[in-house]
TrEMBL record:
InterPro entries: GAF, GAF-like_dom_sf, Sig_transdc_resp-reg_C-effctor, Tscrpt_reg_LuxR_C, WH-like_DNA-bd_sf
Domain HTH luxR-type residues, every copy: 218-283
PANTHER family found in the cross-reference section: DNA-BINDING TRANSCRIPTIONAL ACTIVATOR DEVR_DOSR
Matching Gene3D superfamilies: 3.30.450.40, Winged helix-like DNA-binding domain superfamily/Winged helix DNA-binding domain (1.10.10.10)
UniProt name for this protein: GAF domain-containing protein
Coiled coil: none
Origin species: Arthrobacter cavernae
Segments passing through the bilayer: none
One Pfam family, short name: GerE
Any GO BP annotation: regulation of DNA-templated transcription
Keywords, comma-separated and alphabetical: DNA-binding, Transcription, Transcription regulation
Length: 286
């Protein structure tokens, strides 16, 4: 992999896209949020604000509505922010300056840790309802899924970088790490919604497949496995069952078998082990 071929997309853009989507579904509303930085939350993304009073506000665990959400990892709805006795009031000045009254907040929780908080607020007397809180929770859950995928990509790339250190020998254990990383990257690429990121992951995974071990040119040129057929072979190469492969690729077991059958025909082999071996010889799998 060449330097900077993969760079993690900005998680703040993920928040901005989510706020824009919420804004289209909930009108009128003031929406904002931020990422957890260390132990606290720094507000950085805003839609519908009239002033800069909330800009760069840092929310510590337990302080205000966001702090409660941050520490308890649960969504909350407050109908009268300044008058509520359910929260502390360190941020009343910023909230009052924006004339905000009702407010809902939902945490983005990834593997048990709060990574971000989304807020929805209104200025009018009409209280926010459960529908608004559910919208915020749904948006937060979608962000959590995407962040988890990005984290997994980061982890796999770190494993690859560590495995490629000069002092480590090229042995069977190293190759198993490479094959695991290759299969996981293909699995992630098949699930991520961002087309550009999916293409990056497939390209990075392709670097883990070695050059063909000099098969006959005519044979190699005729073998064209589809991305899904390669996805299935990559999982089976790790020893995954049909059911495990289906779960990892969000497919049905019968669909996995169908892809394998197609690959076996193209590779002119008779079972899954021969299919994996042939794909490796052709440089399609590590």
């Amino acid at each position: 992999m060449t330097k900077n071929e993969y760079s993690r997309p900005d998680d703040r853009e993920l928040l901005r896209a989510s706020l824009r989507s919420l804004s289209a579904a909930i009108r009128p509303a003031v929406l904002f949020g931020g990422l957890v930085d260390g132990t606290g939350l720094r507000l950085s993304e805003f839609l519908g604000t009239d002033t800069a009073s909330l800009h760069k506000v840092r929310v510590e665990p337990g302080s205000g509505l966001g702090g409660r959400v941050l520490s308890q990892r649960r969504p909350f709805l407050i109908q009268d922010y300044v008058g509520s006795d359910a929260i502390t009031h360190e941020h009343d000045f910023a909230v009052s300056h924006e004339r905000l009254r009702s407010m809902a907040a939902a945490p983005v929780v990834v593997r048990g840790k709060t990574r971000s908080v989304l807020y929805i607020a209104t200025r009018g007397e009409a209280p926010l309802g459960e529908r608004v809180l559910n919208e915020a929770m749904g948006a937060a859950a979608a962000i959590a899924v995407e962040m988890n995928i990005r984290d997994e990509v980061d982890r796999r790339l770190a494993m690859m970088a560590e495995a490629r250190q000069p002092e480590q020998s090229f042995d069977s254990t190293w190759m198993e790490h490479v094959r695991q990383a290759h299969a996981d990257l293909r699995s992630l690429a098949s699930r991520v919604e961002d087309a550009e990121l999916a293409a990056q992951l497939e390209r990075i995974g392709g670097h883990l497949a070695p050059a063909p071990s000099a098969p006959p040119i005519a044979v190699h040129s005729l073998v064209r496995l589809t991305p899904r057929e390669l996805d299935v072979l990559a999982q089976l190469a790790l020893g995954c069952s049909y059911e495990e492969t289906a779960a990892r690729l969000a497919l049905k077991p019968v669909t996995v078998k169908s892809y394998l059958q197609n690959a076996m025909v193209k590779l002119s082999v008779h079972n899954r082990m021969e299919a994996v071996s042939a794909a490796r010889k052709l440089g399609l799998l590590p």
